[in-house]
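lol forgot to send this yesterday, sorry. struct tokens for the thing we talked abt
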């Protein structure tokens, strides 16, 4: 029994020593595993366009609120909501009867004023005739006095006869003065009557306009929205009946940063333009819709706000896009993009070569000796599956694109290109 127990103890001891020995590589075995196989790609040089991308919202190029210019009861809606309408097309009709009565009254007043002008002119003609008669009588009296004055001095006629003629002359002069006053009064009456005619004609024109305003028309070509009132409602000059939006072309608003604005302005001026508004098609804009599709029409800048927003530090711009078929409607969201600059001879690497560690971007560079050196880099814009490296890397260096998780500073690698690996 003692021999058996001793044998069991020795067996367990041997098993324990063997298991401990096989639990890990022997000392120095890590260095004997050989280089780590990784996939690498060369950093390349390329001129890279810098593309700005901004949130955008569409709006009508012109949005007209349709409001009546007279008050009254709405008796008819003459358009289909959401349909295209044309300028001066009748959209609504207001009860015209009260305004027709006002027009009839104004026309009656005009006729009365015109008849008063005729009467005043007739009185003026009569007053002028009487004035001419008074002038003739005064002239005759003056002749008589001038003729008989020497005769009275020579006692050829009596002094009393001459005195009578002088009094007659004085009476004729007073009658002439009165008649001149009557003519002036008649002229004033004519002028007053003519002013009344002008006023009455203005009242008629106003009444005709107001009667015409009972037919509420579209101010622009566009798409009419939903009616805000119903037939039978009492509407006034402050009532909004509907809105009409000009959608061809359509306006797209977006906001850019101050730096992006300066870059766009510099690009416009480098092409001989004074500012963004005059850049024309030199800075074409692309519109990406909310479903990810790219709108087939390119746009151009038509509005630059006068100042930056104090809250956001951004500048509001608007672009004009041709909108065939009225596909775009006000209130749609999307993204506007445009080339703002060009990075000449920029360094690009595949995006998958970049690792992020504690907020720091890094790439694993395989040196000429196939030893890994970890570099901190500054990233620029993305270009498809590649990304621009602004600093931290030189052109034509090799960066690891596959197998990064196995590497650390100083690791020995066996690089393979993407083409050789078949990936």
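and heres what i got for the seq, position by position
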């Amino acid at each position: 029994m003692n021999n058996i127990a001793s044998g069991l103890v020795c067996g367990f001891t041997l098993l324990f020593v063997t298991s401990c020995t096989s639990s890990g590589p022997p000392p120095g075995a890590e260095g004997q595993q050989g280089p780590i196989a990784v996939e690498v790609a060369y950093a390349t040089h390329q001129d890279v366009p810098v593309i700005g991308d901004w949130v955008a919202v569409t709006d009508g190029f012109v949005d007209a609120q349709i409001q009546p210019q007279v008050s009254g009861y709405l008796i008819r809606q003459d358009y289909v909501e959401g349909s295209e309408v044309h300028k001066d097309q009748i959209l609504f009709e207001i009860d015209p009867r009260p305004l027709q009565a006002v027009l009839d009254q104004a026309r009656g007043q005009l006729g009365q004023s015109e008849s008063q002008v005729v009467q005043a002119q007739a009185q003026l003609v009569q007053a002028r005739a009487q004035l001419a008669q008074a002038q003739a009588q005064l002239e005759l009296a003056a002749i008589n006095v001038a003729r008989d004055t020497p005769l009275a001095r020579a006692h050829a006629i009596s002094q009393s006869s001459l005195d009578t003629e002088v009094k007659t002359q004085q009476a004729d002069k007073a009658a002439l003065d009165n008649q001149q006053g009557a003519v002036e009064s008649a002229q004033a009456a004519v002028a007053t009557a003519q002013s009344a005619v002008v006023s009455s004609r203005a009242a008629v024109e106003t009444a005709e306009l107001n009667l015409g305003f009972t037919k509420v028309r579209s101010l622009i070509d566009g798409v009419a929205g939903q009616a805000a009132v119903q037939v039978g409602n009492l509407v006034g000059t402050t009532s909004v009946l509907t809105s009409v939006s000009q959608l061809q072309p359509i306006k797209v608003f977006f906001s850019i940063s101050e730096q992006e604005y300066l870059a766009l302005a510099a690009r416009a001026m480098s092409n001989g333009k004074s500012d963004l508004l005059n850049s024309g098609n030199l800075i074409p804009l692309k519109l990406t819709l909310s479903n990810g599709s790219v709108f087939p029409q390119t746009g151009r800048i038509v509005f630059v706000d006068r100042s930056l927003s104090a809250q956001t530090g951004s500048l509001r711009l608007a672009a004009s896009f041709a909108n065939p078929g009225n596909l775009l409607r006000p209130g749609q969201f999307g993204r506007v993009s445009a080339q703002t600059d060009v990075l000449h001879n920029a360094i690009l690497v595949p995006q998958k070569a970049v690792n992020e560690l504690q907020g720091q971007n890094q790439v694993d560079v395989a040196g000429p000796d196939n030893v890994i050196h970890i570099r901190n880099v500054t990233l620029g814009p993305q270009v498809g599956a590649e990304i621009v490296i602004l600093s931290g890397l030189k052109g034509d260096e090799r960066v690891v694109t596959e197998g990064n998780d196995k590497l650390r500073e100083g690791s020995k690698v066996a690089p393979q290109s993407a083409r050789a690996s078949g990936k």
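The chain has five helices and 20 strands. anyway ping me if u want another try
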